[in-house]
Design brief:
Blueprint: H1 13-17, H2 20-41, H3 53-67, E1 71-72, H4 86-89, H5 105-108, E2 118-123, E3 129-132, H6 133-139, E4 143-150, E5 155-165, H7 166-173, E6 181-186, H8 195-198, E7 206-210, H9 211-215, E8 220-225, E9 228-229, E10 239-241, E11 254-260, H10 267-271, E12 295-298, E13 304-306, H11 314-317
Parallel strand pairs: 1-4, 2-11, 5-12
Antiparallel strand pairs: 2-3, 4-5, 5-8, 6-7, 6-11, 8-9, 8-10, 12-13
Bound molecules: the ligand Nc1nc2c(c(=O)[nH]1)N[C@H]1C(S)=C(S)[C@@H](COP(=O)(O)O)O[C@H]1N2 and molybdenum atom.
Ligand MTE is lined by residues 93-97, 151, 186, 205, 234-235, 247-248, 250-253.
Length: 324
């Protein structure tokens, strides 16, 4: 579609002012036109010699339009709470690599360069692989799921992620019998992320799950949110989402995973072991040493609501923690 310039969608200022539905309808329209145009209707699109540097962005956007919006999987819905408005969720972020000021993350994280981007999967697996993010987008069937999300700081939101089950990636790489955990790392690049040079945190951010947790049906590798690819502040181009755990487990902008036989140490546990444990399962009865976890604030509203065990996902995950 050389005639339609469609930049990366977080740079479309229009996105901020267009009601989400209009915006999505427009993307669906572009996707339909793109599909038809590549086939029969637009002979100029076959003229490879005209595809120059300027068209590379168009090509990337056309590819993304094949993935987003992903088809909603209605099995994963939230009945008792409204979805958080996109402009609220996208302006209230934790991404300490950039800043510790939630409302400034979106602006600073624009420096995150998400192409090219590789994700190395290594360790105790039969098929170690390094995925290019664009291959990963197409190799794994994407779906949309609406999840509750609960930060350890006692705020909560409800957002539509797009991505694929972590279990699908596990199946591809085939962990060896000894593998019990998976460890994950975020990028290290102080040129993009000022707080990686201005602070004494043990960068890069690292997290981990048990293999059973990674295999749970709720565990998602997300590449999108609100019907489009992840904007940088939400952890582009690939982040973890484990909705029954406190938000810090859901590591952003993943570059590497390692399957291992030992429980990995984690960023926040290393910094403050008495405050942030490896499991970090949402539990109203276990207060943080400095505040209660009994209730939570719903961002974008004036409401507080009671916290629920496993953030409302007890039926899916309680079995993971039953002593044999
Ligand atoms: N790499 C990285 N991942 C991270 C964080 C971070 O600072 N760096 N913050 C975590 C915390 S505390 C939360 S609550 C969520 C916030 O995700 P959101 O900004 O998309 O809502 O990301 C998590 N993942
Ligand atoms: Mo958090």
């Amino acid at each position: 579609m050389p005639s339609i310039h469609l930049p990366r969608n977080w740079r479309i200022p229009e996105k901020d002012v267009t009601p989400e539905q209009v915006y999505l309808d427009r993307r669906r329209f572009l996707r339909a036109v793109g599909a038809a145009g590549m086939g029969l209707l637009a002979p100029w699109s076959l003229d490879k010699t005209s595809i120059g540097v300027a068209d590379a962005a168009d090509a990337a956007s056309t590819e993304l339009a094949k993935v987003f919006p992903a088809k909603r999987n209605t099995k994963f819905a939230v009945q008792d709470r409204e979805m958080t408005r996109e402009d609220i969720a996208a302006r209230y972020n934790n991404f300490y690599e950039f800043t510790e000021e939630k409302t400034l993350v979106a602006t600073l994280a624009r420096n995150l360069k998400t192409r090219p981007w590789k994700v190395e999967v290594t360790g105790l697996v039969r098929n170690p692989r390094t995925f290019d993010i664009d291959d990963l987008l197409h190799e794994f069937a994407h779906e949309e799921r609406i999840y509750r999300f609960r930060c350890v700081e006692a705020w909560a939101m409800v957002v539509p992620w797009a991505g694929f089950p972590f279990s699908e990636l596990v199946r591809k790489v085939e962990p060896r019998a000894e593998a019990r955990y998976v460890r994950m790392w975020t990028f290290l690049n102080p040129e993009w992320a000022p707080n990686q040079k201005n602070s004494d945190y043990p960068w890069p951010y690292f997290e981990g799950l048990t293999l059973a947790e990674a295999m749970n049906e709720l565990t998602l590798l997300a590449t999108g949110i609100y019907g489009h690819e992840l904007p940088p502040q939400h952890g582009a181009p690939l982040r973890l989402v484990v909705p029954w755990k406190y938000g810090f487990k859901s590591i952003k902008s993943i570059v590497k995973m390692e399957f291992t036989d030992r429980q990995p140490s984690t960023f926040w546990n290393q910094l403050a072991p008495t405050e942030y444990d490896f499991y970090a399962n949402v539990n109203p009865k276990v207060p943080h040493p400095r505040w209660s976890q009994a209730s939570e604030r719903l961002i974008g509203t004036r409401e507080r609501a009671p916290t629920t065990l496993f953030n409302g996902y007890e039926a899916s995950v309680a079995g993971l923690y039953k002593k044999p």
